[in-house]
Design a protein that fits this description.
- This protein has 241 residues and is mostly helical.
- 78% of the residues lie in helices and 0% in strands.
- The chain has nine helices and no strands.
């Protein structure tokens, strides 16, 4: 491999990684992860939820790229973009409302019930594992994380146009293997970044020992997510009319 080709390949993979990071930190994705991880107040668990969200998200991104390869095009009907935004906004509004209402309910129940809700020792990892308890058999373990992945996938209802354009350019220049490597780098970047977002949310909430304050923050964050969903709908709906 010549130095020129090597430099070009490195630049292409760096671009794929950058696209993955910037895609992961789009406001609706951050708000969605926050809404799903706000209940844990634990960096490790929240990072795991963020990673599960990203895996579903990446699966649909790869699906879109596969469709682009099969049909031999990177351009799709323009209506798909606002449709995807509307779908993501409705989903974000739902999960944000759930977080907000949950925070308000915990505030209403007060400190006595706060311990059971916010510091639940039965928070489950994939495959049913529980942190620090050693009990790996619970009906809701895997299902909870699969549902989180499904939510992440539904945030990708519109085609990832920037990655499609990069993949198309790389295919003509370097071939299919390089495109596959770029997609892998892109997927890893999304997963790592979304995991870090989840960890940040969990670590931040974990700093507040007062459960009423923590519940209040959850209520506020849920409200902000619903507001963002409203802004997204306001921007996308005119394109569908």
């Amino acid at each position: 491999m010549s130095p020129e080709i090597g430099a070009g390949l490195t630049g292409a993979l760096a671009t794929a990684a950058l696209l993955g990071v910037t895609h992961a930190v789009e406001p609706d994705h951050v708000a969605g992860i926050t809404s799903l991880t706000g209940r844990y107040a634990d960096a490790r668990l929240s990072a795991l939820v963020g990673a599960c969200f990203s895996l579903g998200h990446v699966a649909l991104v790869v699906g879109w790229l596969g469709v682009a390869v099969l049909v031999g095009r990177t351009a799709f009907p323009a209506v798909l973009e606002p449709l995807g935004t509307v779908g993501a906004a409705l989903l974000l509004g739902a999960v944000g409302a759930g977080m907000g209402v949950g925070g308000l309910r915990r505030l209403a129940r007060g400190h006595a019930r706060g311990h059971a809700d916010d510091a639940d020792p039965h928070v489950h990892l994939p495959l049913g594992d529980r942190i620090g308890l050693g009990d790996a058999d619970h009906a809701h373990g895997v299902g909870t994380y699969l549902r989180t992945g499904l939510v992440g996938a539904l945030f990708t209802l519109s085609p990832p146009l920037s990655m499609m354009a990069l993949s198309s350019a790389l295919f003509g220049e370097y071939g299919g293997r390089t495109v596959g490597l770029a997609v892998l780098v892109y997927a890893v970047a999304i997963t790592a970044t979304m995991g870090l977002v989840g960890a940040g949310v969990g670590a931040t909430l974990g700093q507040f020992e007062d459960r009423r304050l923590r519940s209040g923050l959850r209520a506020v964050a849920g409200g902000l997510a619903v507001a963002l969903a409203g802004v997204m709908l306001a921007g996308a709906l005119p394109a569908l009319v």
